[in-house]
Specification:
CATH architecture: Up-down Bundle
CATH class: Mainly Alpha
Helix content: over 70%
Distance between the termini: 6 Å
Strand content: under 5%
CATH topology: Growth Hormone, Chain: A
Number of strands: 0
Oligomer: single chain
Structural class: mainly alpha
Largest sheet: none
Number of domains: 1
CATH superfamily: MFS general substrate transporter like domains
Length: 455
């Protein structure tokens, strides 16, 4: 775009410190997504289908609060900036809720257990995690205007995210068996507060006048005016690229949400729960080199071509995964999972940068900066997608006749686990490719600038 875009705003330690925020986020979120269902069924002893319905119901509320908190962040103005105060203070609520969620008293009735879970889950996901994570994601647009730095911020944060997910996959299986889920949650939650604080103070937000650039003279409306909630909602939902990015997040995290079925798959189909850790390694570790090369690929080919090529690769790998499942070959399954992870890594790294591009597109059309609300699509997609994935897993397992903790499950349950593990991911990969094919937001911004003679 213009020369202003090429200015560097961040040092390496700013980007590294920012990335640690996803360590804090996943010490809570990944732990919940991976283990809340099996904790509720095999430790608390309640029905998987009911838990799935509760999660799905909570997610309907989630989407509303995401947009509300995005609007609040847009209208915040403090010495710390717009986003950082929300990110800092909300983490304390997240940690308290996680501890309570994994500390359900055994003497309660099933009804009270469901109520306890619902209240802690909705407070953690819909209130505190929402405020924390929208603010965290918004910093991609608020701390720098450099598109390469935005991609790098997204890449670094997701490297940390993957490393933390991998850590949780290993420790989340072994540690609760030694000290219990409650004590594990306490350790993770205290660590999350410390690490989140480091991330908050690793970057500074740019002053609002510095966020403006050469296109400001060409945009319509008064950029400085704060839009109302209704106006912001109208701007967001008339931006087709926001809808496409939101859909990519939803599909991406539905896929990750159904990964919780892997715990059941390896425990009841392969009869070796420890294989889940190997599977998690194959699914996550290859993404680290994939993420490292993503900024290079994006700089050479742009985000559109890089993401599209990645999902062609991921679809092919998902077909191989199904073939491995049909042959019952664990080796082929693991090879396919590694290849699929490599294919999905570019979008993982540049998703936040795509939101920034979609937000810039709204600003060009309407002259209003609503970065907080635009970045709500990251938490809507993350939480609602994971929630739908987890809910689907619980509901479909219950419908297939799953019996809590029973060593030998019925054939209908085994068939359902195969479908969740092999078929559903392929369908999601195909849908993501279709969505990304139409997501040409970079091209749209360049076209607008050319038409309005923005240098």
């Amino acid at each position: 775009m213009g020369s202003m875009k090429e200015k560097k705003y961040l040092k390496w330690y700013n980007i590294l410190g920012y990335g640690t925020g996803d360590v804090a986020a996943n010490l809570a979120n990944a732990f919940i997504n991976m283990f809340i269902l099996i904790y509720m069924t095999d430790t608390v002893g309640v029905n998987a289908g009911v838990i799935g319905v509760i999660i799905l119901f909570a997610k309907c509320f989630d989407g509303f609060t995401d947009l509300i908190f995005g609007h609040f962040i847009d209208r915040t103005n403090t010495k710390m900036g717009k986003a950082r105060p929300w990110m800092f203070f909300a983490q304390f609520g997240v940690s308290i809720c996680v501890i309570l969620m994994f500390s359900i008293p055994s003497g309660m009735s099933d009804t009270m257990k469901y109520a306890w879970f619902f209240l802690t889950y909705i407070c953690e996901m819909s209130l505190f995690y929402t405020a924390n994570n929208i603010a965290y994601s918004s910093l991609t647009a608020l701390a720098t205007k450099n598109s390469d730095e935005r991609v790098l911020m997204g890449t670094v944060r997701f490297v940390f995210s993957i490393a933390t997910n991998l850590f949780i996959a290993y420790v989340g299986v072994s540690l609760p068996s030694k000290i219990g889920y409650s004590h594990t949650a306490i350790i993770f939650s205290i660590a999350a507060i410390i690490i989140n604080t480091i991330a908050v103070f690793s970057v500074r937000e740019l002053p609002e006048d510095e966020l403006m650039d050469a296109k400001d003279s060409a945009v319509s409306g008064e950029a400085a005016a704060k839009p109302s909630l209704i106006e912001s909602l109208k701007i967001v939902f008339t931006n087709k690229y926001f809808i496409m990015v939101l859909l990519s997040y939803l599909l991406f995290y539905i896929y990750y949400g159904t990964m919780s079925s892997g715990v059941y798959y390896f425990k009841y189909v392969m009869h070796d729960a420890s294989l889940y850790s190997t599977y998690s390694s194959a699914n996550l570790l290859p993404m680290i080199p994939g993420l490292i090369v993503t900024p290079i690929l994006v700089k050479k080919f742009d985000m559109y071509k890089t993401n599209l090529a990645g999902y062609v690769f991921a679809i092919a790998a998902s077909v191989l995964l199904m073939l491995g499942g049909m042959k019952g070959s664990f080796t082929i399954i693991m090879i396919a999972v590694v290849l699929r992870a490599l294919g999905t890594s570019p979008l993982t790294g540049d998703q936040n940068a795509l939101i920034a591009e979609a937000s810039e597109y709204s600003y060009r059309l309407h002259g209003k900066r609503i970065d907080g609300m635009m970045y709500s699509c990251s938490t809507i997609g993350n939480k609602v997608g994971n929630g739908i994935g987890s809910a689907l897993t619980g509901i479909l397992l219950s419908a297939s006749g799953y019996v809590n903790g029973f060593a030998e499950q019925s054939q209908s349950c085994i068939n359902m686990l195969n479908g969740l593990f092999f078929v559903l991911p392929l369908v999601i990969m195909i849908l993501l490719f279709i969505d990304l094919f139409f997501l040409k937001v970079e091209e749209a911004n360049k076209k607008w600038d050319a038409e309005h003679s923005v240098q």
